[in-house]
Specification:
The complex is a heterotrimer of chains A (360), B (253) and C (186). With 360 residues, chain A is an alpha/beta fold. Chain A has helices at 8-18, 33-45, 56-68, 79-94, 121-126, 143-160, 170-174, 215-235, 256-271, 289-296, 314-322, 341-352, and strands at residues 4-7, 23-26, 49-52, 73-77, 100-105, 136-138, 164-169, 176-179, 207-208, 239-242, 250-253, 276-281, 283-285, 303-308, 328-332. Chain A has two domains: 4-189 and 203-235, Thiamin diphosphate (ThDP)-binding fold, Pyr/PP domains (Rossmann fold); 239-352, Rossmann fold. Chain A has a seven-stranded mixed beta sheet with strand order 3-2-4-5-7-6-13, sandwiched between helices. In chain A, helix 1 packs parallel to helix 6 (143-160) and helix 10 crosses helix 11. The longest helix of chain A has 21 residues, at 215-235. Chain A starts with a strand and ends in an 8-residue tail after the last helix. Chain B is of the alpha/beta class. Chain B has a single domain, classed as Thiamin diphosphate (ThDP)-binding fold, Pyr/PP domains (Rossmann fold). Chain B has a seven-stranded mixed beta sheet with strand order 2-1-3-4-6-5-7, sandwiched between helices. The longest helix of chain B has 19 residues, at 184-202. With 186 residues, chain C is of the alpha/beta class. Chain C has a single domain (2-177), classed as 3-Layer(aba) Sandwich (Pyruvate-ferredoxin Oxidoreductase, domain 3), CATH 3.40.920.10. Chain C has helices at residues 15-28, 75-81, 114-120, 127-139, 144-155, 162-177; strands at 2-10, 32-37, 47-55, 69-72, 90-94, 108-112. Chain C has a six-stranded mixed beta sheet, sandwiched between helices. The chains are: A alpha/beta (360), B alpha/beta (253), C alpha/beta (186). Chains in contact: A-B, A-C. The A-B interface holds A 22-23, 25, 49, 51, 53-55, 57-59, 61-71, 73, 87-88, 91, 197-202, 205-211 and B 44-48, 50-51, 57-58, 60, 63-71, 74, 76-82, 84-86, 89-90, 106-107, 109-110, 114.
């Protein structure tokens, strides 16, 4: 199959089908509704389940039921809807079920607006729901990467028996780019015969639950989740560097669509002879803090500039990774405004003005 | 003399477990009626039950079939998820009045309206039991609870929600009946209704819903005997028993 | 090498489709492409615009504030986007609906009477295709051959004479941009 020009939302929907998703439960919300519209057509064609639920609360709890019954399941939403799904995320994590959540982020808080934003970063990496839990969170920056990471999300959800979230800003949902499904590999079907509730014929009944009134039993489960997150930190770190060899004077840190804008700014600044590079986290939980330190703590790197479509959320993770050993700067846009390369070039020049940056 | 014959035994669909329900509470009877039904219809090994939040949150300790435990009010959403991916299995939710008629109102109405092919056993005892006796959507007018210490004021809290009657208004075909279990006669009728509900599901006919009026001596502050009397005198006249809707009887235009 | 165009007009003028067809032609040439829409309430009857980027390497910023090319299909779009055209860039104006030009002297301006040309061919709804023909011919952002083959592929499966009619209006746009004095006062 040749490459296909697809809108991000539709490409994500098709990726889930390629990944073998069996059921999709949803509630419409801009700017991701095209995923639901696409799957309303596609799921029945592949013998899958499509249900438009009465709310995001219900859609995400239908995910719980279907996942506990052993099906490969997912849902998609945008910021206000994801807040309502926080409940189910907590329960699904507690029950150790595989599921995929996709958040095509719009600007907030409150109803906010429908334009692109990265304002749900902390909600995603720290947890939208209650209790001691984490999601594995991936952040694509192109439509092809959104496709690849959607499929990867299903594999990782099975591997860890933990929900995986894909975060894309509204542009990831709305842009069209060429995508290739040919190299995509469908994750193998998970063997869930030891725990799925499918009827107890020939075995003892299975119970999928999240209530553990004995403190020692619950603490043991908390420890098990912690061990899972530590394993993710060892095995699932994903990031990309651009213009970091040799080490740049100024290191940008950005993810998602913002990282693409930074990339353009880096190209233009380098054409002018400036020494700049980009560190782009792809997994944002686990956050690639060791990798970031290795780049940023090289002696040639004098400044780190974090760019986000928020008032500074990934900034907290970068701050914690750098341990105060490099001056840290921030440039953020909000309200649905996407930073332009020119803005970033201006910001960079302020920091390069100390004479370290130019090669000329 | 011949060997003694077993005339009454624990259904296979119930586990051999000590009950945590209070003396005089009718949850145990309702559990048994559901379990007997699963046995009689031969459904136990292909049944998935969904536990609510409330006194019956631990019902997975009693039902001897696959079980999931839902967040407060979301049992119909879980049941929808299960039934849609495993349409040949039997799925039921077991929910109390706070769970189903308050925090889970949207879920129950929409599951019923979509005509999801599962069964709901709705236990209405007019109070929140597990949290210790707060006002429920089904608490009776002037009934005293910890959150309506001067009695339920219908001017500010509204009237008790007659859930079975409300659901029966939906156009989507369903089986809906309200029963009680505080006397043997009522219990026999309740058993027939619960069996009918699962029978309709086994035939893949429609959504089925049985509201069971139940006692809560502990939180009502009454003895078990007084509770039975109060249920008969106060609840039954308001929550009218009987068949509300049947897939065999088309709605009157 | 990276080239960009912003197509802007009313919702319903086929702006988004014109952009998509252009992006498909870029793809057919083996280029990297990106199509970025405006989205949301403004799509419904208001201004609709999309930007298409075609490049020979990975496309960075999808946001282009100073596009090399702009095609304004209505007056509000001209007012909004003409000031943003990069110096030395190209501004195409749908002169059927816009009776002014940009005061800018540092860009080229081309007038294309899209509605008139489409109406002459009794295909009034295809002003976007007229515009696409004029733009491709004038800018060379993709080759005319690539664009024509995309039209064949996208409209060839449709019923009736949709393909023939589409190619007709496309070629009218091409001729207009290639210096038909009747149509263009560049």
């Amino acid at each position: 199959m040749p490459k296909k020009l697809m809108k991000g939302n539709e490409a994500i929907g098709e990726a889930a089908i390629v990944a073998g998703a069996q059921a999709y439960f949803c509630y419409p919300i801009t700017p991701q509704t095209e995923i639901a519209e696409y799957l309303a057509k596609r799921m029945p064609e592949v013998g899958g389940v499509f249900v438009q639920a009465e709310s995001e609360l219900a859609a995400s709890q239908m995910i719980f039921g279907a996942a506990a019954a052993g099906a490969r399941v997912f849902t998609t939403s945008s910021s206000p809807g994801i807040s309502l799904m926080g409940e189910a995320m907590s329960y699904i994590t507690a029950a150790e079920l595989p599921a995929v959540f996709i958040n095509i982020i719009r600007c907030g808080p409150g109803l906010g607006g429908i334009l692109p934003s990265q304002g749900d970063y902390l909600q995603a990496v720290k947890g939208a729901g209650h209790g001691d839990y984490k999601l594995l969170v991936l952040a694509p920056s192109t439509i092809q990467e959104a496709v690849d990471l959607t499929i990867e999300a299903f594999r990782l959800a099975d591997k860890y028996l933990n929900p995986v979230m894909l975060i894309g800003d509204g542009l990831i949902g709305q842009m069209m780019e060429p995508v290739d499904f040919e190299s995509c590999v469908k994750p193998p079907r998970l063997d869930c015969s030891a725990w799925a509730t499918t009827g107890c014929a020939g075995r003892e009944p299975h119970i999928v639950k999240t209530l553990f009134l004995d403190p020692n039993v619950l603490e043991e489960r908390n420890r098990r989740l912690k061990a899972k997150y530590e394993r993710m930190a060892r095995e699932e770190i994903r990031f990309e560097t651009y213009g970091c060899d040799p080490p740049p004077d100024l290191l940008f840190a950005a993810y998602g669509t913002t990282a693409r804008v930074v990339r353009t700014a880096v190209d233009r600044l380098r054409e002018e002879g400036a020494s700049v590079g980009l560190f782009r986290p792809i997994s944002v939980f686990p956050f690639p803090d060791d990798a970031l330190r290795q780049v940023a703590h090289q002696p040639q790197v004098h400044n780190v500039l974090v760019v986000e479509m928020s008032m500074g959320q990934m900034l907290e993770d970068v701050q914690s990774a750098l341990q105060g050993r490099r001056p840290l700067h921030f440039y953020g846009r909000g309200g649905g405004n996407v930073p332009a390369p020119e803005e970033l070039i201006d910001e960079a020049k302020k920091l390069l003005g100390n004479g370290h940056g130019g090669k000329k | 003399m011949s060997a003694p014959t077993t005339i009454f035994r624990r259904p296979e669909a119930l586990r051999d477990a000590f009950t945590h329900y209070c003396p005089g509470c009718t949850h145990g009877i309702i559990h048994r009626l559901v379990a007997e039904t699963l046995d009689e219809l031969g459904l136990r090994e292909r049944t998935i039950g969904i536990a609510p939040v409330g006194c019956s949150v631990l019902c997975y300790n009693y039902f001897n079939c696959d079980m999931q435990e839902a967040a407060h009010g979301r049992a119909p959403a879980l049941a929808t998820g299960v039934k849609r991916v495993l349409p040949d299995r039997i799925v039921f939710t077991y929910q109390g009045d706070g769970d189903l008629a308050s925090i889970g109102t949207a879920e129950i109405i929409h599951a019923a309206n979509r005509g999801e092919k599962f069964t709901t056993i709705f236990v209405n005892n007019a109070i929140y039991g597990m949290t210790g006796g707060q006002m429920a959507p089904t608490t009776m007018p002037n009934q005293v609870t910890t959150t309506c210490p001067r009695g339920r004021d219908v001017n500010t809290a509204g009237w008790p929600i007659p859930v079975a009657d409300v659901l029966a208004q939906l156009r989507t075909p369903a089986y809906i009946e309200r029963v009680a279990v505080h006397t043997p006669r009522y219990t026999v009728q309740a058993k027939r209704a619960i069996r009918q509900a699962f029978q309709y599901q086994a035939e893949n006919r429609c959504y089925s819903f049985v509201e069971v009026l139940s006692t809560c001596p502990t939180n009502w502050g009454k003895t078990p005997n007084e509770s039975v009397q109060w249920l008969e005198d106060v609840m039954v006249p308001y929550f009218k028993l009987g068949l509300k809707k049947s897939p065999d009887r088309p709605p009157v235009e | 090498m990276q080239r960009e165009v912003t197509f802007a007009g009313f919702g319903g003028q086929g702006i988004m489709t014109a952009g998509k067809l252009l992006a498909l032609a870029g793809m057919a040439e083996g280029k990297e492409v990106c199509w970025i829409p405006s989205y949301g309430p403004e799509m419904r009857g208001g201004t609709a615009y999309c930007t298409v980027v075609v490049a020979d390497r990975l496309i960075g910023s999808p946001i282009v504030n100073d596009p090399e090319n702009v095609f304004a299909f209505n007056r509000p779009s001209l007012d909004k986007f003409a000031p943003r055209v990069r110096t030395g860039g190209l501004l195409l104006i749908n002169s059927s609906l816009i009776d002014v030009r940009s005061p800018r002297q540092d860009i080229s301006q081309v007038l294309v009477p899209c509605n008139d040309l489409a109406n002459q061919l009794k295909n009034g709804r295809s002003i976007n295709i007229v515009g696409l023909g004029a733009f491709v011919a004038r800018s060379g952002m993709v080759s005319l051959e690539a664009q024509r083959s995309v039209l064949h592929k996208e409209f060839g499966k449709k019923k009736g004479d949709v393909l023939t009619a589409t190619l007709e209006v496309f070629e009218a746009g091409v001729r207009a941009a290639q210096g038909d004095k009747e149509a263009v006062r560049g």
